Amino acid sequence: MKKIAKSTVPKLTVSAAETRTTRSDVMRPGRRVVQNYLVLWVDGNIDENNEDCRNVLAQLRALVNYVNVRTTPEQCVEFLSEMDEGKAFVISSGALGQSLVNDIHGMPKVDAIYVFCGNKARHEPWAKNWPKILGVSPQ
Q1: What are the pLDDT digits (tens) for 19-40?
Q2: Rounded CA gap, 109 and 104, in Å?
Q3: DSSP state of 11
Q4: In this prediction, what percent of the chain has a pLDDT beyond 70?
Q5: How far apart, in Å, are the Cα atoms of 79 and each of 99, 123, 124, 139?
Q6: Domains of the chain
Q7: CA dihedral 94, 97, 99, 100 (to 10 degrees)
Q8: Predicted TM-score (pTM) of this structure
Q9: Are the beta carbons of 100 and 76 closer than 8 angstroms?
């Protein structure tokens, strides 16, 4: 991912567990925002100062009310455990995916999981064993 500037999207703190959750207050025409849905992006290499990363986050924020970034599986599990309501859509890096999916797949709050990786052929075989994984996509 390329370097990007800090996001100008307003931040909304929902709970102590979600200190990095943001909400987009501006909707683009023709875009539908999904209510009561959270995107949880888990990647040890995520850099919110990276331009590509910021662009992806901006696109996600245009589609859902809340986008939360975590860098470890433990942070993700803790966040999901403290979530009061709603459903979560989890995007995981390939490096964290197999371990993370094992920890969160059984959680009712997790609706769907995508693995975003650099080596699709490496991650597709294990991902097929988990019904909530809806896709493995190359970076």
Answers
A1: 343 333 333 444 444 556 789 9
A2: 9
A3: B
A4: 74
A5: 16, 24, 26, 25
A6: 16-23+34-138 (3.40.50.2300)
A7: 150
A8: 0.72
A9: yes
